[in-house]
Automatic annotation (TrEMBL):
InterPro entries: ABATE (IPR010852), ABATE_dom_sf (IPR023286), Znf_CGNR (IPR021005). Residues 155-198 form the Zinc finger CGNR domain. It comes from Bradyrhizobium rifense. This is Zinc finger CGNR domain-containing protein. It comes from the Bacteria. The lineage of its organism: Bacteria, Pseudomonadati, Pseudomonadota, Alphaproteobacteria, Hyphomicrobiales. SUPFAM superfamilies: Jann2411-like (SSF160904).
Amino acid sequence: MSRDPARAATQFFGGRVCLDFANTMDWRTSDAPQELIPDYAAFLSWSNTRGTLASKAVARLRVLGARKPAAVEAIMREARALRGEIWEAADALCGGKSVRLAPFNRLLAALPAQPGLVRDGAGYVHDLRGADPEEPLWPVLWSLTALLSSKDAARLGCCQAQGCGWFFVDESPNHSRAWCSSEVCGNRERARRAYSKRRPVRSP
């Protein structure tokens, strides 16, 4: 394993917020998966870097989270459960199967209405004020709803690099994308295959 966890946490190859959230478990299909958002503080940092929460909201949620440790621990359990459901759904779509919608519909039923947008730095984010510690989860679910209800659901791919398991929307012209990133997993797989070809075969 060579991908640095700190760097991997800021590599967004999925093309959609919900897929990048699913990809917060690095080396998902390997024997040694690496958690990229181990706690609520890391989840907030990821949300801010990904552009789903404004900096001011993140600052407020850090304070709120410090005051309610039990609540944010419960939210992290919910986040990991949601991530697992997204893995299952994405694997189903990649395999041409139907998605089990009940878990998502249950969560969506409890969500507030999707808010408007506000300026944050050079971009725009949902107008979430940092008042509810569950706010980092909401843009993930909104993104998932948009993905599943669009034609992009049929273009989901999963990185073919050994042990990676990251998901992405394949927007290549001929739908032939094989890697989460050609520069990361693609280069590593090409190097691995080249090494395998050069390695001498031992006599029995």
